[in-house]
Amino acid sequence: MAATFLTLLFISLLQCATEAQQPPSTLPDCHTIEGKLDPVTFITTHCVNGAWPSSATGPNAIAFLPNATNVLTLIATVFPFGDPQPLTSARLPNLSRLRLKNVRSLDASGGAADEDPFPFGWFTSGLERPRITEVVLEGVFLSSVTKEMFDGYTGLKKLALINCGISTIHPRSLFALAPQPGQPAVLTEFAVENDRALTVFPWDVLRPVANINSKSQLSPNNPWLSSIGHAEASDAFFLHKLDVLTITGNDISFFPRAILSSVSKADAARIVFADNPNACGDCTNYRQVPLVRWVIAAIGRSLRLTCHAADGSQRTGDGNAAYFHRNPDCSLGS
Questions:
Q1: Cα-flanking dihedrals φ and ψ of residue 206, to 5°?
Q2: Residue 18 scores a pLDDT above 60
Q3: Which region is the signal sequence (predicted)?
Q4: Which DSSP state fits 167?
Q5: What pLDDT band is residue 32 in, cutting at 50, 70 and 90?
């Protein structure tokens, strides 16, 4: 009887697991919110769960999305593996912001296709990409950021890649966002967060948007990210208009020299280099002194810096030139 019971229990659990993996048969549950940012009225379409139609169903399959949509958010929606119906500007002529969170792909049998990257390029292939000003991908498996991934997004102001399983970033992945002659670049916010497979960040990524990029964030929880530097032999570039650069929760023991060069002419910037494994040690040997000299050199700069003392405590310094003039030896509040 015991063996029979265990066999039946195993079959029951297997049936439950199989049922749980079956792709949903209904479309995403969507609702629309109207907002106003004077003098502009914008429409946000918020969709959760459900199954996204495949490309075989044709463009009318996404008619459930209001064509007045300005902001589209998809959360926990299941996509058919390899061939989701692309978004199109014919259906969504006013779309300017795209946000995907925790979407996943299932194959025809209902099995997870998590080892294959989400087909972002195909999914957005029907959009007039210059109209898109914001892309936020969170919990969307990408594996890598390729050179061509953001081709055509010349109007992109915000790009956030959060928990996307990224292991590599091509150093020219933002080159398509470079301004045309006589025109400014528009990207003002760029973030890579919680990508635990990323070990090296190519600083050259920011080169084409250097004259306008105002907020860059490599944080938090990229615990294996241990190197930031130039992936290609080239001249230094300068982030003249940098507002905030945040590097926290990574595995970087020394503040990268490549960044110091790029921020040398940013006179109204704030740098946050905190919660990394860098030791306080001797200022010169641990490269904190160049950071302190940087903040002291211009009255409009500020710096938050933490380091680990020999006794195991974490020291913190946070302030402008006046603060670090009083504490120039990197003892950081000791």
A1: -85, -5
A2: no
A3: 1-20
A4: -
A5: very high
